[in-house]
Give the backbone structure.
Amino acid sequence: QVQLVESGGGLAQPGGSLTLSCVASGFTLREHTMSWYRQVPGNERELVAGIGSLGGDTNYADSAKGRFTVSRDNAKNTLYLQMNSLKPEDTARYYCGRGRSKASYAIDLWGQGTQVTVSS
């Protein structure tokens, strides 16, 4: 079954850290770019970070630069998002998305998401 399954969300205090994981199954992860998005109810889903198929290229939203790090382990079929210095405004549901190919960041498969809540 082709799917993405996120985990690692939860409650964190401001200034704290969380690491999200996204396990891919049913396809070859290294054939695709991957991205993390987040969404707050009532708002559009927004890009957080993206990573090239082999991990050499990364890009971040301004809100994530310097605090979040995206990485991947193709051998483990897993994408990660290390989030440090968390802020209340990082509260959202976080989704991983599969790019259509090695060269495209257009998303053609989404996971179900994992909730991140930053609050004291």
